[in-house]
Design a protein that fits this description.
With 207 residues, the chain is mainly α. It has three domains: 48 residues, no CATH class; 69 residues, no CATH class; 46 residues. It is built from eight helices and no strands. The longest helix is centred in the last third of the chain and has 63 residues. The chain starts with 5 loop residues before the first helix and ends in a 5-residue tail after the last helix. 13% of the residues are buried.
């Protein structure tokens, strides 16, 4: 989890108290605070609730969250994997499954992240089942390996472009040096030619 200084966490709690007092939601606060501190909205939310659970929220208290049952986890995985086929990002898939409820979507995202690491066998089983029924299914593990390959390929391309650019710079510098030397040679030849013609004009010939 990303970290914030104690002062910034106290500021977050203080601003949350004002918002709660006004009967507003914390979504906009999390988003604004995330931009101010270079974090994601989800990270700020996690930091906020961790502070409340640690007893640092004063009168603000975190409501107890009912944990997902095993059946709920499996159903969530099924819905998220199915939704991901029709969305551009995982965030859109979570929102789709949560029917636009950002708070619930964040719960799904956090739980999904844990399940990806701990329940690979169950997730792969669901992927196989969906492929059998619909013919296709989003595979988070394959997507991760593809992303790593794209990052690796981009790095190799960037390095190649850098090498080519450096080579072009050196070749341009060498070409400029050659052109400069050639220009000096031409200037010298022109000067010599002018002096030669002047000498011929000053000569007298006798027949």
């Amino acid at each position: 989890m990303h970290k914030l200084s104690d002062i910034r966490i106290k500021e977050l709690i203080s601003r949350a108290k004002v918002i709660k007092k006004n009967g507003e939601t914390l979504v906009d606060l999390f988003e604004a605070f995330a931009k101010e501190n270079g974090l994601s909205k989800g990270s700020v939310r996690n930091i906020y609730y961790k502070a409340l659970k640690g007893g640092n929220g004063g009168e603000l208290k975190a409501k107890p969250v009912k944990p997902f049952s095993e059946n709920e986890e499996k159903e969530m995985i099924r819905k998220v994997l199915f939704a991901r086929k029709n969305t551009k990002t995982m965030k859109e898939a979570f929102l789709l499954v949560a029917k636009g409820d950002e708070k619930l979507a964040m719960r799904y995202q956090n739980k999904y992240g844990n399940l990806i690491k701990k329940r690979r066998a169950d997730i792969m089983r669901e992927i196989i089942n969906q492929k059998r029924v619909t013919g296709s299914c989003f595979n988070p593990y394959l997507a991760k390996s593809q992303k790593e390959e794209r990052v690796k390929l981009k790095k190799e391309i960037d390095e190649l472009v850098k090498i080519i650019s450096e080579k072009c710079v050196k070749e341009n510098q060498l070409l400029k040096q050659k052109l400069s030397a050639y220009q000096k040679l031409c200037d010298n030849c022109y000067e010599y030619s002018c002096w030669g013609l002047k000498g011929i004009e000053n000569k007298t010939f006798s027949l």
